[in-house]
Amino acid sequence: MNRFSMNFFAPPACRTEQAGRGLYSPMMKARNCWLVVAGYAVAMAWVEAAVVFYLRTMINRVDPYQANPLPNVAGFAGVELIREAATLIMLFTVGLLAGGNWRSRWGYAAIAFGIWDIFYYVFLKLITHWPHSALDWDVLFLLPLPWWGPVLAPVIIACLMIFWGTLATQWDHPGRRFRSEAKPWLLNLSGIVIALYVFMADAIRAAPHGEEAVRAMLPTQFAWGTFTLAAILMSAPAIDLARKVLRDRPSSAPVESREPALEKIYLDNIE
Q1: pLDDT at residue 269 above 70?
Q2: Among 8, 38, 75, 134, which lies 20 to 30 A Cα-Cα from 121?
Q3: pLDDT digits over 114-135, tens only?
Q4: Contact 91, 41 (CB under 8 A)
């Protein structure tokens, strides 16, 4: 898919000068694109909360931290696994459409995922009055094994994703490209692996005893120290990019302020 076709399918607020000098010119600012992606993520969060409300009500597990937290209901497991995978594809797709290069595409995908995750819990609280606190245990994902963790843990990761995604989409543009370095991303990958282990540690220990043991398992203690280390490592790309933005701040204003000539052309065309 070339840059023109990517632009054509992008949300109107995210289209760039590649679309021509009409309505979808550089006057449509990066900030507007951020808001479009955020709005999409909030809407998806409501859908996710509603679906989880239906499912957990059907199996009487609105609060998942109770005996037999993942009952084996015929047909549910396979459908739920595919639904989770489909949700991730949808979140990545909006980033793919919104961004103009691979960094901004990943950035918008990170923003979408982070906002979706946070507002999922906000809406779940409104619908079900759960979670009762940020430290309540939740089943975060089921792929490839159940992830267990306090609500606060995925929210911390979501905030990191929004922070990095905002830097990558609002300050990295044709007038100023920030070079990606391998070291921060290797640290990030290490942090992701550690966090995944923390979330799935109890399920991994239960796995040798069979599927029923994994379904019935309830964690008793969250490794906050290890998770904190993972979060610090995962924040490396965001810290690195923030440092570059601050260092180059006088010349790295958001996208919209760096296109005065094109804006003048646009204004001339509509007069």
Answers
A1: no
A2: 75
A3: 999 999 999 999 999 999 999 9
A4: yes
Structure tokens at 211: 């599927």
DSSP string, 112-178: HHHHHHHHHHHHHHHHH---SSTT-EEE---SSS--EEETHHHHHHHHHHHHHHHHHHHT-BTTBPP
Q: Which residue has the tokens 């946070």?
A: 118
How far is the C-alpha of 169 from the C-alpha of 124, rounded, in Å?
29
63 token code pair:
């609060």
Output DSSP code: residue 22.
S
Q: Which of 5, 118, 10, 138 is nearest to 62 (CA)?
A: 138
Could you tell me if 219 and 202 are in contact, meaning their C-beta atoms sit under 8 angstroms apart? Answer: yes
For 139, residues 6+ apart whose C-beta sits below 8 A from its C-beta are 64, 69, 70, 146, 147, 148
Domain residue spans of the chain? 7-260
Q: What residue ranges in the chain does DSSP mark as E strands?
A: 137-139, 148-150
Helix, strand or coil for residue 94? helix
- For 179, which DSSP code? P
CA distance 69 to 128: 17
Structure tokens at 25: 């010119």
Q: Residues 200, 204, 206, 207: is their CA dihedral positive or negative?
A: positive
Q: Cα–Cα distance between 154 and 67 in angstroms, integer?
A: 23
Q: What is this structure's pTM?
A: 0.79
CB-CB contact of 45 with 37 (8 Å): no
